[in-house]
Specification:
The chain is mainly alpha-helical and 464 residues long. Helix content is 64%, strand content 1%.
Length: 464
């Protein structure tokens, strides 16, 4: 990349980061100014320093005496005081959100400074890491597979897919989206190192080092938000490519196996962590949530045991369309640029090129990740909310970007195609802004009762 291109890219990254990070402070509910139940990561760091895995919050005796403390109606009828959206087990409160962000941000910060890291700053950090990862991954993919993609298109798509992937995090950044942003940050860099391992030409040592780094980052996503971690199935096509690149023998298989050890090590550590808290290595704490539903009774297969329920969940996440409220629409209806990822799969030359580049199976598994994550989200959630779509948007965006790159190379009328891509990208960025402004989930327009764009405009002017 030429020097002035590097400078333009760096400036674009900084502007994108600023546009997504600065608005996180607008809502006092989600900025930490009114902490409520959103400072659990900070409290978990304190607990680890003190040498235990439960939170220090005192449990009301009335909660201890309930026959089923997870029943919200029973808690309400008995006027029981409790910590909202905490896990409760054997007389202690626990954090059911993944431990990875605590280990890598909150705990070191507390040990070094003696103060708690504000959850908002952790979310901002993870979001920055994700955005940089998107730009670098897309640049790497372009260099490897579609070198003729126009530089403005690379920048435009990097900005667009960054924004549509994390706009919700900007609106409601702490706790729930801290877990999501951490999963996205570890996930995007895991995929980056997987790509470098499988597709970059280089010596075997570098391939295995990149595979090991990607495996470690991928494994750590299970300790951020487990549904997002299902993206790790993309490792299957990566391993197939690695095995095809060189002669297969016992030594080669052993080396690859060693590079995959992070999955085993992190998996064991997470299971021990879960067992020490809930006497079950596979229980992250969701079954013991104190929230608006009794999730203790979901069972091993979640709440939606019917095919119709699962299909409804998939539709909600991806293709639902309604004109009543923008937030209710699935990701393809909200961000139509993603349809190019589907359209491209019906283009014969694109399919041929994807096969030649050994990318078709990789893209297939990206879409399968979308399906699996959508199913898990609808299985183990009391009800579906727009925030869960953040789990799948980034994966669908990566697949779409790869297909757009190949379409741009193989389509006849490139000029018209380029214009369509730019217009769709601008439309999707605009949609993200409108979604951010729509009152929902205690975001700043909801909190301040700003129910029109004119009121939002007046509020921003007053704030300045």
């Amino acid at each position: 990349m030429k020097h002035h291109y590097i400078l333009i890219t760096a400036i674009t990254i900084l502007i994108t980061i600023a546009c997504l990070i600065l608005p996180m402070n607008l809502s006092p509910i989600w900025s930490g100014k009114i902490p409520m139940h959103t400072n659990q990561y900070e409290k978990m760091a304190e607990s680890l320093i003190e040498g235990h895995l439960y939170l220090n919050d005192k449990v009301d005796s009335s909660l201890l005496n309930l026959s089923n403390p997870y029943d919200p109606q029973l808690r309400t009828s008995k006027h029981v005081k409790f910590n909202w959206d905490h896990a409760f087990y054997k007389g202690h409160y626990y954090m059911y959100f993944g431990i990875t962000p605590v280990i890598f941000t909150f705990l070191p910060y507390r040990l070094i400074t003696g103060h708690n890291l504000p959850t908002l700053q952790a979310t901002q950090t993870f979001t920055i890491i994700f955005i940089i990862g998107i730009f670098l991954l897309f640049l790497t993919l372009a260099r490897l597979f579609f070198k003729t993609i126009p530089f403005p298109m690379y920048l435009c798509l990097s900005v667009c897919f960054s924004i549509i992937s994390v706009w919700y995090i900007s609106a409601a950044p702490i706790l729930y989206c801290t877990a999501i942003s951490a999963g996205l940050a570890f996930g995007i860099w895991s995929i980056y190192f997987f790509i470098k391992s499988a597709y970059n030409s280089g010596n075997e040592k570098n391939e295995l080092i990149n595979l090991a780094i990607g495996s470690l980052l991928g494994a750590l996503t299970f300790g951020c938000r487990p549904p997002i971690a299902l993206f790790n199935i993309v490792l299957i096509p990566i391993l197939i490519i690695l095995l095809q690149k060189r002669e297969i023998n016992h030594k080669r298989i052993l080396k690859i196996g060693v590079s995959l050890l992070p999955y085993v090590i992190v998996g064991i550590l997470l299971m021990v962590y879960n067992y020490l808290r809930f006497d079950n290595p596979f229980e992250f704490g969701q079954s013991y949530q104190l929230t608006n539903t009794d999730q203790h009774n979901y069972g091993a297969w979640g709440q939606q045991n019917s095919l119709i329920g699962i299909l409804e969940g998939l539709n909600y996440m991806n293709f639902k369309f309604t004109t009543s409220k923008l937030l209710q629409n699935g990701i393809f209806m909200t961000f139509p640029i993603l349809f190019l990822g589907i359209v491209g799969l019906f283009h014969k030359k694109v399919i041929k090129t994807l096969k030649e580049h050994k990318l078709l199976l990789f893209i297939t598994f990206l879409f399968i990740s979308n399906i699996l994550i959508s199913i898990i989200d609808c299985q183990y959630s009391p009800f579906l909310i727009p925030r869960y779509r953040t789990d799948i948007l980034w994966l669908t965006a990566i697949a779409t970007y790869i297909i757009i790159g190949h379409l741009q190379q193989n389509i006849k009328n490139k000029q018209i195609f380029n214009i369509v891509v730019y217009l769709l990208a601008i439309f999707c960025i605009t949609m993200s802004i409108l979604l951010f402004l729509e009152p929902h989930d205690n975001n700043f327009t909801y909190y301040y009762e700003l129910n029109s764009l004119y009121q939002v405009y007046r509020f921003i002017l007053c704030a300045l």
